């Protein structure tokens, strides 16, 4: 009698289906729509900083001189929710990092992050410092030793202020990269990423009540669930949806809406929880559509350009932009001024991408590849 082979339960495989040629083929394709979302998120943050923050809505503020809600009330009402662009960045970061690291090792992960983050960041520090020297009185300029430490991108770990306030998000990103490096070193699989999401999520929930500063620093409870949502969405994209991934995404939504409310109460003070949660929910549902392939037909080189502008725009817009507004506010209509300043920084962002990021990233990559090759040879 012939033995019947035992069927083994296999891990999820890249899916096939109506919205993809195959999951593996889709997983390797560029998702153009994400480039567009990233630019939209950056513009949301920029408009918020110029016309929707609690600071610019105070009497006698140094940016506008009087509450921005009196100058352009309709713009203020919309711009007051633009801070959610940061949370959108975090979700997209989880998605994109997981996608770009699949099948790669820790060395490639490290090199990709360095060449992606540092060239534009170094330029932004020099540019912002120069603006603070040229336009004093809006923001306090740091001491030289603090500016130099900012070049490491590790200033928050040393309790040193940021040259530009928006750099606080980079500290969250770096902690995410450090944690995810562990999974990358082990080799990314569906199971390992799911376990990572669950373990990190549990640590993020326990950290605030643990009274352990190191645990709270590593677990990053303020941002963890947004990155986890992005990771779960990428697994949906690569392997297809299942109840476990929906459960992780649902937990991320529940934790996220709570975090949105806390941020409104403690930092923003200008928007409502219901509106913020609605925007966040719509965004997550749209990302589900992206993950499941409903936006695959959205393509265009202009979207690639849009994505390339996002990071430089985020880095340079805030301190320099508000300083410019403080000097030009009496020269033109406030709404036109906001549009002109944003347009100017979009042009500057393209110049940074073209003449700073591209050449410096290439030199950094070549140098780091050579360094790691020497390390391998020395070990052998």
Automatic annotation (TrEMBL):
**Top-rank lineage group of the source organism:** Bacteria
**InterPro entries reported for this sequence:** Acyl_transf_3_dom, Acyltransferase_3
Keyword tags: Membrane, Transmembrane, Transmembrane helix
**One Pfam family of this chain:** Acyl_transf_3
Keyword Ribosomal protein appears in the UniProt entry: no
Membrane-spanning intervals of the chain: 31-51, 71-99, 120-139, 166-186, 193-212, 218-236, 243-260, 272-295, 302-324, 336-356
Q: Where is this region: Disordered?
A: 1-23
Residue runs in coiled coils: none
What residues does the Acyltransferase domain cover?
33-353
Protein name in the entry: Acyltransferase 3 domain-containing protein
């Amino acid at each position: 009698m012939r033995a019947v082979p035992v069927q083994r339960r296999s891990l999820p495989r890249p899916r096939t289906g109506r919205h993809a040629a195959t999951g593996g083929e889709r997983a390797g394709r560029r998702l153009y729509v994400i480039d567009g979302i990233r630019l939209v998120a950056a513009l949301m943050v920029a408009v918020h900083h110029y016309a929707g923050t609690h600071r610019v809505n105070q009497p006698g503020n140094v940016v506008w001189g009087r509450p921005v809600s009196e100058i352009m009330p309709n713009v203020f009402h919309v711009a007051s929710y633009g801070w959610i662009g940061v949370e959108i960045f975090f979700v997209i970061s989880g998605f994109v990092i997981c996608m770009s690291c699949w099948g790669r090792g820790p060395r490639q992960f490290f090199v990709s992050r360095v060449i992606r983050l540092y060239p534009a960041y170094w330029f932004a520090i020099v540019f912002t410092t120069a603006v603070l020297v040229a336009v004093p009185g809006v923001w306090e300029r740091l001491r030289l030793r603090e500016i130099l430490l900012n070049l490491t991108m590790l200033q928050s770990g040393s309790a040193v202020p940021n040259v530009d306030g928006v750099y606080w998000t980079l500290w969250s990103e770096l902690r995410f990269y450090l944690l995810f490096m562990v999974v990358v070193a082990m080799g990314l699989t569906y199971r390992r990423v799911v376990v990572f999401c669950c373990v990190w999520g549990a640590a993020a929930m326990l950290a605030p009540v643990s009274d352990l500063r190191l645990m709270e620093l590593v677990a990053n409870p303020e941002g963890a669930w947004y990155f986890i949502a992005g990771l779960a969405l990428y697994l949906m994209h690569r392997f297809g949806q299942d109840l476990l991934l929906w459960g992780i995404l649902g937990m991320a939504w529940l934790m996220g809406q709570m975090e949105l409310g806390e941020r409104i109460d403690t930092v923003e003070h200008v928007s409502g929880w219901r509106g913020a949660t609605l925007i966040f929910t719509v965004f997550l549902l749209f990302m589900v559509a992206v993950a499941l392939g409903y936006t695959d037909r959205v393509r265009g080189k202009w979207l690639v350009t849009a994505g390339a502008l996002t990071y430089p725009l985020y880095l340079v817009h805030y301190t320099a932009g508000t300083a410019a507004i403080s000097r030009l506010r009496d020269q033109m209509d406030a709404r036109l001024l906001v549009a002109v300043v944003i347009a100017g920084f979009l042009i500057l962002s393209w110049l940074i991408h073209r003449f700073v990021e591209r050449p410096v990233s290439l030199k950094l990559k070549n140098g780091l590849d050579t360094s790691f090759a020497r390390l391998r040879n020395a070990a052998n």
